[in-house]
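Hi Y.,

Following your request, here is the sequence exactly as I used it, all 139 residues.
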Amino acid sequence: MYGRKVKLRFFFIIFILLSLILSVFMVLRSLEENVVYFKSPTDVKLIGELESKKIRIGGMVKKNSIEISSNKVNFIITDYKNEINVTYSGVVPNLFSEGKGVVAEGYLKDKSFFEASKILAKHDENYMPPEVKKALGEK
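Below is the corresponding structure, written out as tokens. Let me know if you'd prefer a different format.
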């Protein structure tokens, strides 16, 4: 019914479409594994079940909460409604201090304890990440 040329074009178009669909699926799948979700201490308290995924928790470093021992730093992140205790091993950024905005990336141990693998406070004293500003209810 159809000529050989028409059949070849049809199969070529089907092959291209399937390849495109497979490529998009693979890209989205790999991106899904690298997504890190942002949460405030209040969001953490509202979590139903703890997951072992990496997350970011942001807020303000509570005054008089930083405790530094040999190579560990313990502090409290607050959004002025709830608080979460954070422990971090490593060197903190120069601008990390009490009363300043911070975003910690790592894993939740429970709803009130967070083990950070990275501290993100690389900003000047006037800048606040949009997620933290939103979580704190500021404009």
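The helical segments are 4-33, 41-45, 130-136.

Thanks again,
Q.
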